[in-house]
Amino acid sequence: MSDDLTNTPAVTYSEDEWRARLTPDEYAVLRQSGTERPFTGEYTDTTAEGVYECRACGAELFRSNEKFHSHCGWPSFYDPADSDAVVLRTDSSLGMERTEVLCRTCHSHLGHVFVGEGYPTPTDQRYCINSICLRLVPGA
């Protein structure tokens, strides 16, 4: 994982093409770095086994065995499915410094990652991801 967004993503569309491919709510989160309301997302409490893909481009991002209940209102994972599945970058919006998580394949916004919150995970990380950014492929 890196914060290098200088490379062109593998999947690119114009903003008009993204708007045509995504619903208005998906576009607001994935392409405009929005956030869905807590405890409203489709995958917040899902325990089904499978692979979570990027809703914008279909790239594999997380696996169900990396998901845990953080009770924060959004799906939480302790590690991406592949160390290169996401890109991290500094987010200084909202008057604080956070680490934004983006899909490496299409550079769509997914959520944020937090470290050292005390969750009993192997990585001590919480990838807090918007449900609307994901698509679960059961049993994959």
Structural class: mainly beta
Average per-residue pLDDT, rounded, comes to 92
In the CATH hierarchy, the architecture is: Beta Complex
Strand order of the largest sheet: 3-4-8-7-6-5
Choose one word for the global shape. globular
CATH class: Mainly Beta
CATH topology (level 3) name: Metal Binding Protein, Guanine Nucleotide Exchange Factor, Chain A
List the total number of helices. Answer: 2
Total count of domains? 1
From the alpha-carbon coordinates, what is the Rg to the nearest angstrom?
Answer: 14 Å
**Order of H and E elements:** HHEEEEEEEEE
How many DSSP E strands? 9
Point out poorly predicted stretches: none
Proportion in β-strands: 25-35%
Oligomer: single chain
Instruction: Give the name of the CATH superfamily.
Output: Peptide methionine sulfoxide reductase
Largest sheet: number of strands, sense, barrel closure: 6 strands, antiparallel
Give the fraction of residues assigned to helices. 10-25%
How far is the N terminus from the C terminus? 23 Å
EC number: 1.8.4.12
Domain MsrB: 15-139
Protein name: peptide-methionine (R)-S-oxide reductase
Catalytic activity: L-methionyl-[protein] + [thioredoxin]-disulfide + H2O = L-methionyl-(R)-S-oxide-[protein] + [thioredoxin]-dithiol
